[in-house]
Amino acid sequence: MLGKGLLKGMRITLRSFFCKKVTLQYPDEKLAMPARFRGGELELDHQKCIACGLCAMACPNRVIKLTTGANEQKKRCLTSYVYQSGLCLYCNYCIEACPTKAICWDKNYENARYFRKELDVDCLALSLERTAAGAAEEAAFTGKTATAEVEGAPGGRSAE
To answer: How far is CA 95 from the centre of its chain?
Structure first.
C-alpha cells in the first residue's frame, strides 16, 4: 500500500503536535541538572580538604594545580587550588580519588568565556567566599554582625 508510510508519519506528527510542550525560556528559566551531571566547574570545600594532592595526581590532563603549606599547628593545608576548566576532560577521576569528598561538580552548565585565561578557576578563593558569605548570612539571620560578636564591641550587643 503506497500511503501507509505517509499515514504513520502524519499520525506521529499530529500526536506530537497536540502534546504538552516542554520548552524553557532559556535566559529566564534554567534547566535543572540531574545529580549525576558531570560538567561545569569543580566546587571545593576547603574545610574538608586535607591537601593530599590525590585529585591532582588522578587527573590525566593535569588540570588541577594545587600548592600546600603548613599552618600554626604544623598541619598541611591548601595555599592555592587552581582548576583549568578549558583543558578538563570531565572524566570524574579527581572526584573519585578524593578521600574526603571535598570536591564535586557544580550544576552550572554555562561555562563559556570570552578569553582562555578566564577558564582558569581559583577554587580555593571561591570556597573562602562561599564560607564568608554563609557566615555573614548566618550572622544577619541571628541579628548579630559578623565583626562585632565580642561582647561590648562597638556596634555589638552588650549584656546590660
So the answer is: 12
